[in-house]
Amino acid sequence: AECGLALSPAPWHGIDVGSPFDPAAQAIRYVARRLPVPGRDGPPPAVLDELVELAQASGGGVLALFASRRGAQAGAEALRGRTDFEVLVQGEGTLSLWQGVDVVGPSCRLVVIDKIPFPRPDDPVTKARCMDVERRGGSGFRAVSLTHAALLMAQGAGRLLRSDTDRGVVAVLDPRLGTKPYGRFILASMPPMWPTEDPQVVRGALRRLNARK
Predict the structure, then answer these.
(1) Sign of the alpha-carbon dihedral angle for 24, 28, 34, 40
(2) Is the pLDDT of residue 91 over 80?
(3) What is the mean pLDDT of the chain?
């Protein structure tokens, strides 16, 4: 069963207390625009190649977040078969690592996101919410699916910087973040890290972080 919380339209007051972090100075956000658009059958071979190469440049210290169980299994198999790193896979579900991991320091210097985590279009709750929005003249995709994905992307990227001394890279292996109009909406929700689409810049930064750990 789902739980809900209803908020009244009464006026409210809030305060923005800022952040102790400086994402643009502490981290790089890499969008791999040259990769193929992910499908529903798990990560394409090029995405797995990129995951392995980034992990090798980083020398470990990787948190890989996947939008599906199939993606997590494929990523783990690629890393186990092509690196010497110890690979731990979440036992149940795929979302708690996006939201609940708190690893401070060089043990987490690379966060990899395999694809934008849109909810499944055939999920009955998502479908019902989209239909409700559209009945009222809105966009179900923007109000439900896109907002859901943007929140998870913000939470996933936030796993990297857990102290004001952390340094690292958030690598998004879904080119739609940089090529689709809705990518700007998602990027606006994520920490304002220094952006790049150059794979060599990212690999060089990861090698330097690995040398400093």
Answers:
(1) negative
(2) no
(3) 88
Give the integer Cα–Cα distance in Å for 167 and 206. 10
Q: What is the DSSP letter of 195?
A: E
Query: Which tokens in the block code for residue 147?
Result: 């907002």
Mean pLDDT of 37-47: 91
pLDDT band for 142, please (50, 70, 90 cuts).
confident
Q: How many residues does the chain have?
A: 213
pTM: 0.85
All residues at 6 or more sequence positions from 173 whose CB lies less than 8 Å from its CB, including other chains? 32, 35, 38, 43, 47, 50, 51, 112, 113, 114, 115
Beta bridge partners of 175: none
Helix, strand and coil in the chain, % to nearest 5: 45, 10, 45
pLDDT value for 1: 36
DSSP structural state of residue 34: T
